[in-house]
Amino acid sequence: MREKIIAANWKMNHLAEDLKKFFTELLAGYKAREEVSVVIAPASPYLARAAEMADGAERVFIAAQNMYCEKSGAFTGEISPSMVKDCGCRYVILGHSERRHIFGETDELIARKVKIALNYRLNPILCIGELLEEREDGKTEEVVSSQLNAVLPQLSPEEMLSVVVAYEPVWAIGTGRTATVEQAEEVHHLVRGIIGGAFGDEVAQRVTIQYGGSVKPENIDQLMAAPDIDGALVGGASLAAESFLRLINFKQ
């Protein structure tokens, strides 16, 4: 059985007092589930504090929202993979659409980040997904394939097993619009096929592929029932412990 991962991407939200309140409420209601991991990605100033709060909670891990692809140096404002690791993180989100489309990160840069994250024994959550106009032009497969194939040739089969892929249609992120289960499953199946073409079906069947894009308590059960959807990368609905707990406790 593939690992299911429910991940919270807080983006540029929550201060220290919010962090404390969230973890207090989360851990009061949290019960670990077999084969389900929980990942929380606060803003970088709070990574170490979040790791301390999650310490001892079964199958609860911390992720950075981004990192640079050098171990140190004159890169003002960036954080290195060694810093991410030193803060107690196991995961790092890479290639999020906001990094691609607001900050101009290229497929090449994201591929370099994925590779160095693996070198530091961090598990990358590699985000891929198309814009609305790309979907309307019938280019979803082209875009998703291109984003994946910028990364896959850099990896060994063993490294691929340490990567989580998150399909996030850009048109559904923070818009209230959600891909239908059928639309999401279609792309997830495509992604698994691309991975299978690169590394074989045995590897592809073991890779966790998350869905992201206006995931909320009202649709989590239907999404998680799809054969190739192995979790969720969640924005707004992850900011409150109550709604995030409902996502963790999806029905299966």
TrEMBL record:
Function text: Involved in the gluconeogenesis. Catalyzes stereospecifically the conversion of dihydroxyacetone phosphate (DHAP) to D-glyceraldehyde-3-phosphate (G3P).
Known pathway: Carbohydrate biosynthesis; gluconeogenesis; Carbohydrate degradation; glycolysis; D-glyceraldehyde 3-phosphate from glycerone phosphate: step 1/1
Primary gene name: tpiA
The family this protein is said to belong to: Belongs to the triosephosphate isomerase family.
Enzyme Commission designation: 5.3.1.1
SUPFAM superfamilies: Triosephosphate isomerase (TIM)
Protein's name according to its UniProt entry: Triosephosphate isomerase
Claim: Signal is one of the keywords in the record: no
Binding locations of substrate: N9, W10, K11, G174, S214, G235, G236
GO process terms (BP): gluconeogenesis; glyceraldehyde-3-phosphate biosynthetic process; glycerol catabolic process; glycolytic process
Coiled-coil ranges (or none): none
A GO term, aspect molecular function: triose-phosphate isomerase activity
Catalytic activity: D-glyceraldehyde 3-phosphate = dihydroxyacetone phosphate
Gene Ontology cellular component list: cytosol
Entry superkingdom: Bacteria
Entry keyword set: Cytoplasm, Gluconeogenesis, Glycolysis, Isomerase
List of catalytic residues: H96 (electrophile), E168 (proton acceptor)
Family matches, as HAMAP family: TIM_B (MF_00147_B)
Complexes and interactors: Homodimer.
Cell location: Cytoplasm
Organism: Candidatus Glassbacteria bacterium RIFCSPLOWO2_12_FULL_58_11
Gene3D superfamilies in the cross-refs: Aldolase class I (3.20.20.70)
